[in-house]
Structure prediction request, 149 residues.
Amino acid sequence: MSIFFATGSTKKRGVNMNWHNILGKKLTGVLITAAAVAIALALLSSGIANASLKVVGHGSKMSLDPKSIPEHLKPNWEIMKKKCSRCHGLDVELETLQKGVTPSGVPYTRASIKAYGMTMLRKTDSGMNAAEVRKVLELLYFLHDEAAK
Ligand code: HEC
Prediction:
């Protein structure tokens, strides 16, 4: 009788242990899958957010991937490249467009893009005229809408 009980309980414990192990493995599996899905979704959504605004280079050397500029806005890009990089790198505009917020923390909307254009134009020795800033704004509005897609 005692042998029977002993075997019985050992078996039982064995079964319980197995069941625990299986549950443990399953739970770990589920958690790993959930984490992988979360990471994949995060990568996917960040990829989508920046997919339309492609930049090359970093920091003050940052520039726009020519492929992300439509033909009709190429002359505007030429103006922006020359005029808006005299006092700071183009990353001030491009990174701001990607992040949606300026280095000083102001949301980069159509309204603030226009306001900054005017502020830059008014700076002493800005080296731009109103027509050039208008062309740059046209491009920035386009890039802003692309970055928001
Ligand atoms: C005459 C020099 C000069 C030129 C040219 C210039 N900027 Fe600036 N820009 C500055 C300075 C200085 C700052 C630092 C903050 C400030 O003074 O507003 C700045 C800051 C900025 C900021 C960030 C503002 C913030 O809140 O952090 C943006 C955006 C910007 N410039 C866009 C442009 C655009 C677009 C052009 C071209 C149309 C341009 N800049 C041309 C001098 C210039």
Q: What stands out?
A: The chain has five helices and two strands. Residues 83-84, 86-88, 92-93, 96, 102-104, 106, 116-117, 119-120, 123, 125-128, 133, 136 surround heme C (CB under 6 Å). Helices lie at 2-51, 74-83, 91-99, 110-122, 130-148. Residues 55-148 form one domain.
